Amino acid sequence: MAGGKRSPKKSKTYKMSSKCLAHEVNAFGGDWRYRVLLSSDQHIDSEYCQRDLLKKHLDEIVDCDGAVFFFGDLFDAMQGRNDKRGSKGSLRPELKTSNYLNALVDEAVDFLEPYAHHIAMISEGNHESSVRRITEFSLISAVCQQLNLRTGANIMPMGYSGWVFIRAMRKNSNGKLTPWQTVKLWYTHGSGGGGGTSKGTLNAVKRAVYVPDADIVCSGHIHQSWQMEICRERITNKGIPYQDMQWHLQLATYKNEFEESSGWWHEKGLEPRPMGGYYLDLEREYKEDRNTKISFTPSRAM
Questions:
Q1: Which residues have C-beta within 8 Å of that of residue 106, sequence separation ≥ 6?
Q2: Whole-angstrom distance between the N-terminal and C-terminal Cα of the chain?
Q3: What CATH class has 10-301?
Q4: Per-residue confidence at 92, pLDDT binned at 50, 70, 90?
Q5: Which terminus, N or C, of the chain has the lesser number of Cβ atoms within 10 Å?
Q6: 145 vs 139: CA distance, rounded Å
Q7: Count of beta carbons in the 10 Å neighbourhood of residue 286
Q8: What is the C-alpha to C-alpha distance for residues 188 and 218, in angstroms, rounded to an integer?
């Protein structure tokens, strides 16, 4: 499976602007379905990363010819010489080397290579931005570049926040592919220190105000997991009111620091955090008036 199995459903992925990624999928067939993995905070180089769980979710995406979106902190990357957070004791053995940053990139590329053609994007998190500020080296750009060179994939590096347009494509009367429906997803890696008793849910109310065009709002960073629906009344240009739903998804993590009996996590009195991410299942939905639409359903990837 070197280089990853190519997905016949995926048309193409490209940047519409520096902050917006388009992921176009050919929505052909009567019972068309498409699955996307929304994943954050893998911390893939940490000894606490649950790699078996991450591999399970990536294998499921390969099996169903879906796509993967990584929303920051692919790396832990805290063991550099100038990083005060570092502890060499928490390094994986293969990363105990003088060329630490190169080793991080090489190991991540080796792990992700079988899935390269199913990874649409990798965005920056606070762990990667910290390394970039200190060293002037982008781990995310390096991983995307190496995976693309090695496999011929087209993985896009993205910033800390931005947009993803998942476009279901169909053929018009001239046989040309045109967007049928676009699911607009806004993402941010996230901010804050864990959400406290609210677990970050208050952010959903704020984000609903300043990203009103999003169908889905995704965030990571705080290693919590929840989904929230915000129902809205809208109105057409013809003055006809209607209601729609904006989904807010807080993505969990693949780093389980609670499994140890001592260390920073326990000294801070932090609780166990949920593992995994979210699946987003898109499918064609038939209506009684013969109109069809693309619906989407989020569910936990655990």
A1: 146
A2: 24
A3: alpha beta
A4: confident
A5: N
A6: 10
A7: 11
A8: 6
Look up residue 68 and give its two tokens: 């993967």
Angstrom CA distances, 251 to 66, 203, 217, 274, stand at: 18, 13, 10, 9
Residue 158 · residue 124 · CB < 8 Å: yes
Q: How many CA atoms lie within 13 A of 295 on its CB side?
A: 10
In the 8-state DSSP scheme, what is residue 270? P
Label the pairing between strands 241-250 and 226-235: antiparallel
pTM of the predicted model as reported, rounded to 2 decimal places: 0.91
**148-162: b (≥16 Cβ within 10 Å) or e:** beebebbbbbbebbb
Question: Where are the domains positioned within the chain?
Answer: 10-301
d(CA 162, CA 212): 14
Residues, the chain: 302
216 neighbors 249 (Cβ within 8 angstroms): yes
pLDDT tens digits, one per residue of 139-192:
999 999 999 999 999 999 999 999 999 999 988 888 888 888 999 999 999 998
